[in-house]
Amino acid sequence: MYDICVVGFGAIGTLYSLVLERSGKARVTAVCRSNYRVVVDHGVDIVSDKFGQESAWRPYRVVSTPEEAADRDYEFIVCCFKALPDIIPTPALIQPLLNKSKAFVLLQNGIGIESDLQEASPHATIISGCCWIDTTAVDNGRKVLHSSLEILTLGYHRSQALHETNQLALDRFVELLRQGNSTPEPTSNIDAERWRKILWNASFSTLCTLSRAPVSDLLRKDVISSTMPVIRGLMTEVIRVARAAGIDNNELPDAAVDKTIELTVEKYGEDPTGVKQPEYFKPSMTVDLDARRPMEVEVIVGGIIRRARKLDVPTPQLDLVYASLRVLQLAILEDVPRVRSGPV
């Protein structure tokens, strides 16, 4: 039986804790800070089209801080909290756990999110995951809702040297997920996959946030002639930075821009016949702004901007988005000073 620590027990952390325990080979210690009392007192009701239903579910063990969790070693430490390096870097947030495992899994958004953890734990395996999953926690964390969409791409970054050790850890984690009825997709090039996902996050997600609107509002016939050139322009800048960073057209084709737009319009755009209503969905960054919570500005947009400056790639549209989001982020941090302690 593998001991696994999941830090951050929101919707994604809850679902993958359930999956890991359903493998029959893992017991999960969940680090819950903001929702500790809810999970302990009530458990979590899970309603998933893919994984079924659970009533008042709890993992093997629930603790409120990383310090409490650091009483044993773990096969994996899985980070499911939002990466907010402008508030507290990941190594600082999980500091008591850094020497409790030789393998960390980052189920987080962004570019460059692994760098500070690699520096803090240079001999550890760091598995990076890109989640495409439609899930949300409601009722103050007492219930997690999930549709059938669940795509998880996993791999380790090129900068890691211990290939054999890394591959064994990746294979083991993937197998646990599969035995829990998830469908993870291992990749030998997680860097390219992160750039692929950031295409959507840096365009649709940021524009939804700045306009405080669901995705479907960006695709309405009355505004799409204005919004689509901006979305396409942001994606094109992301591709340019990725190319300069060494991601070639075979790894992330230029056609990914059209494909990403096509899939989004198909899911959230207006039906010309008027028969089908577009799905209502707000990206997590937009939800965070609505709730006055810190947003993933630095890892989603800031990471691209910093890479672009280092590589001397101009990004005028991304610069405008980044500057605007930083203003909103600062207002949130000034209103809620306690976030600097790093909530999970």
UniProtKB/TrEMBL annotation:
It catalyses: (R)-pantoate + NADP(+) = 2-dehydropantoate + NADPH + H(+). Residues 4-157 form the Ketopantoate reductase N-terminal domain. Its EC number is 1.1.1.169. Residues 189-328 form the Ketopantoate reductase C-terminal domain. GO terms for cellular component: cytoplasm. It comes from the Eukaryota. One of its GO terms (biological process) is pantothenate biosynthetic process. Gene3D superfamilies: N-(1-d-carboxylethyl)-l-norvaline Dehydrogenase, domain 2, NAD(P)-binding Rossmann-like Domain. One of its GO terms (molecular function) is 2-dehydropantoate 2-reductase activity. Keywords: NADP, Oxidoreductase. Belongs to the ketopantoate reductase family. Catalyzes the NADPH-dependent reduction of ketopantoate into pantoic acid. This is 2-dehydropantoate 2-reductase. The lineage of its organism: Eukaryota, Fungi, Dikarya, Basidiomycota, Agaricomycotina.
